[in-house]
Each structure stands twice: as structure tokens, then as C-alpha cells.
Write a structure and sequence with these properties.
Protein name: ABC transmembrane type-1 domain-containing protein
Low-confidence stretches: none
Order of helices and strands: HHHHHHHHHHHHHH
Distance between the termini: 17 Å
Organism: Streptomyces chattanoogensis
CATH architecture of one domain: Orthogonal Bundle
CATH superfamily of one domain: MetI-like
Number of strands: 0
GO cellular component, one term: plasma membrane
Membrane topology: Multi-pass membrane protein
Family: Belongs to the binding-protein-dependent transport system permease family.
CATH topology of one domain: MetI-like fold
């Protein structure tokens, strides 16, 4: 096979790989939106009954349901919403009549900021701690890091968050227990409200990735390449930077990227726990009010970002291991 035909084959496999991933992503989003719509439809009550709350006659409830379009068949309502979503229109809130995209935009920035801060800290801390523990395998430092990460990974996020509040908010008084900015402030102007939610988000993700990098460092340190470099007189510092660190980090990169999507979902838990003004509050309020368009809009947005990050993780894995992409 000539070089040009080999390149064409590689481009074909890469295009086919991306096509499969994009079709899978689109199918996942449609399935997620359908499941959420079915769940909101099967839930007792609807937006009309939630708004009137038994304070009106059945005729008034029926009139409000007609105004909201809730008297149409479910399949017709879902088809109308899906068609609008494909054209960038996520519908209108049943509660206040505002476009769902505007409601989401007002909250999404705070959620993205929380997830971005956690993600920016996750990668360097996980690599640093994993490298530090792996180079000192079996020593006190390694045992301390391993015990700490094992403890963190065994605790649910809400338990970790509660313990952080008890320690840093109630006990030491360093940070606020509730992550709500003042009325005339914003999250960026009061960064202290981010500390405990970010620490809660990092607890599980950091523990898993530190252990992964640590295992890679231990294996790379004992590899033939590292041993040969040492026998050749290469300084230990250079051995770590040239052979150990790349061999340990490269396999962990796709896993780290996949954990970024976990951070996105975890923000909803942290936001609820700390009262943070993000998408979680909008989702909880919309669910209580049976505001189906807002519930659909928020969940589809979270699902879309999760799918995008997972595709990114798959792309990183494929770039590091082309055989996986080519199906060989």
C-alpha cells in the first residue's frame, strides 16, 4: 500500500469515526429529551394545576390548560418542542411566559463557572499528587495520599459537602456555608462562595484520578526505558520528566477528560447542597411547578454538554491509540 493510499485510508477511518460519534450523540440527546418528556407527562398534575393549586374551578383549570397547550396529545406537544429545539427554540416557560433560552442563559454562566474552576484545578492537582505519591511508593507520603483518596472516593458528594461545611464554615468560619452572593454582588465579585462547592466537586474526581496517575507512575518508574536511562547516567529528574511523567499521564488523559463531564453533572448536586445560583435551582423550581419546557431545556443542555465532553474524551483516546479509532 502506497503512502497516499494509506493517508486516504486513515482519513476515511477518521471521518467514519466522527460520523459514528456524531450520530450516537444526536441519538443520545433525542432519547434523553424523550425520557424527560415522558417523565414530566406521567408525573401527577401539570403546570396548570400547580399554578392554581386548587384555588380555581375545574373550568378555570381546563381553560388554563388550553392556553398552555396542555390539552394537546403528548406526542404532538413533544414533536412541537423537538422541532423548535432543532431550530434553536427551547420553548416558553409555563410559569412566567419567558423564553426558556433566556432563563437558562441567566443561570448557565454560574454553573459553567463552577465547573470550569473545578476542572482547571482537577488536572494539575491530580497529576501533581499522583506523581508525588507514585515516586514515593510505600513511604509515609504515599500511604497518606492513598488513604486520603480512598476515604474521599468512598463518601458521597453530599456527605463530603456537609463535612466541609461543618469544618470550614461552622467550625473555622473561613467560608460561607451557603454559596449565595449578596444582592448587589456576583459570583465573580465574591469568589469565596465558590470554595466549598469546588472542594465538594473535586473530592470524588480528584481521588480517582490521583490513584490512576499514581499507578501509572509506579509502573513507568520500573519500566525498562527508565531503568536503561538510569544505567546510562541520566539524572533522576530528567528520567522523571522524559520517561516517567509522559508514560504515566498519557494513558490518564482520556480518563481525566471523561471526568470533566462528571464534574458538569456533579455541579447540580453541589449547587443544590450549597444553594448556589446555577442551573440546579432553576431545575428544582421548574420541576416543582411542572414547568416542562424549562425542565426539558435544562436537562437537554446538561446532556448536550456531557455528550460533547465524552466525545472529546473519545477523541483524545483515539488520538493516543489510533488502532482503537480504526477498529483494529
Amino acid at each position: 500500500m502506497t503512502a497516499s493510499s494509506t493517508r486516504r485510508s486513515h482519513r476515511f477511518h477518521a471521518s467514519l469515526w466522527w460520523l459514528r460519534r456524531l450520530l450516537t450523540a444526536a441519538g443520545t440527546l433525542v432519547a434523553a429529551s424523550l425520557l424527560v418528556f415522558v417523565a414530566t407527562t406521567l408525573a401527577p398534575g401539570d403546570a396548570a394545576t400547580a399554578q392554581l393549586a386548587g384555588q380555581a374551578s375545574p373550568e378555570r383549570i381546563a381553560e388554563l390548560r388550553h392556553d398552555m397547550g396542555l390539552d394537546h396529545p403528548p406526542w404532538e406537544r413533544y414533536g412541537h418542542w423537538l422541532w423548535g429545539a432543532l431550530h434553536g427554540d427551547l420553548g416558553t416557560s409555563y410559569v412566567n411566559g419567558e423564553p426558556v433560552s433566556q432563563l437558562i442563559a441567566a443561570r448557565a454562566g454560574n454553573s459553567l463557572l463552577l465547573g470550569a474552576v473545578a476542572a482547571a484545578l482537577l488536572v494539575p492537582i491530580a497529576i501533581s499528587l499522583g506523581l508525588w505519591a507514585g515516586l514515593r511508593a510505600g513511604r509515609v507520603v504515599d500511604r497518606a495520599v492513598s488513604t486520603s483518596t480512598l476515604t474521599l472516593v468512598s463518601l458521597p458528594e453530599f456527605v463530603t459537602g456537609t463535612l466541609l461545611v461543618l469544618l470550614f464554615a461552622v467550625g473555622l468560619g473561613w467560608f460561607p456555608a451557603v454559596s449565595v452572593p449578596s444582592a448587589d454582588g456576583s459570583v465573580l465579585s465574591e469568589p469565596q462562595v465558590l470554595v466549598l462547592p469546588v472542594m465538594t466537586l473535586l473530592s470524588v474526581c480528584l481521588a480517582q484520578n490521583v490513584r490512576l496517575v499514581r499507578s501509572g507512575v509506579i509502573a513507568a518508574t520500573a519500566s525498562d526505558a527508565a531503568q536503561a536511562a538510569r544505567l546510562g547516567g541520566v539524572p533522576e529528574r530528567r528520567v522523571v520528566l522524559r520517561w516517567v511523567l509522559p508514560a504515566a499521564v498519557v494513558p490518564a488523559v482520556p480518563v481525566l477528560a471523561r471526568y470533566l463531564s462528571y464534574l458538569l453533572g456533579g455541579t447540580l448536586v453541589a449547587e443544590t447542597l450549597f444553594g448556589y445560583p446555577g442551573l440546579a435551582a432553576a431545575l428544582v423550581n421548574a420541576t416543582a411547578a411542572r414547568d416542562a419546557p424549562v425542565v426539558l431545556g435544562v436537562t437537554v443542555l446538561v446532556a448536550a454538554m456531557t455528550v460533547a465532553l465524552n466525545v472529546l474524551a473519545d477523541a483524545l483516546a483515539a488520538s493516543l491509540n489510533p488502532a482503537a479509532r480504526n477498529g483494529t
